[in-house]
Amino acid sequence: MSRPGFFLADAEATERAGAALAQCPGLKQVRQIHLQGDLGAGKTTLVRGLLHALGHRGTVRSPTYTLLEPYELPGLTVLHFDLYRVADPEELEYLGVREQSDARTLWLVEWPDRGAGWLPAPELVASLRQDGDGRRLSFSGPQAGTISAQMGDF
Question: What is the reported pLDDT for 3?
């Protein structure tokens, strides 16, 4: 019996999954993606694949210490958050990004539970979990069915 989601054997497969996500037409309907998984699960690796497929040519850093890494791409601003070190969601108000929640801005949020009550509801949640020697990527949220179908076998 197969499990739902996508099996990712290694970091390269995780980057390919991020690239496949970037190519989904349904991604245009998404303004918030919440990324869930344990430390080292591959959240930033998934983001790296997505950003490179969207046209970013530089390094993709985990915003663990800065909380936020912005990326300006043609026609799209991507805000990559890592809220692991946030103790109180009100700390996020000081980032001054609430007004950047428009149709040309995509928020990618690692550790979204740390921003509960401050973050808008996501259209897509990407969860990465240990699965044998690899990881399993699954989606939930309003756009999950559309995105999963569009990714196919990527």
Answer: 56
**How far from the centroid of its chain's Cα atoms is residue 111's Cα?**
10
Distance CA 148, CA 89 (A): 30
- 10-23 average pLDDT score: 97
d(CA 4, CA 59): 31
User: pTM for the whole thing?
Assistant: 0.92
Strand spans (E) along the chain: 6-8, 32-36, 68-73, 76-82, 105-110, 124-131, 134-140
* Phi, psi for 87 (deg, rounded to 5): -90, -30
Nearest to 56 by CA among 43, 36, 73: 73
Rounded CA gap, 37 and 43, in Å? 7
Rounded CA gap, 104 and 127, in Å? 24
Q: Rounded to whole angstroms, how far apart are CA atoms 150 and 132?
A: 26
What are the CA-CA distances from residue 82 to residues 5, 35, 65, 146, 154 (Å)? Answer: 23, 9, 8, 26, 26
At 95-129, the pLDDT tens digits run 777 777 777 899 999 999 999 989 989 999 999 99
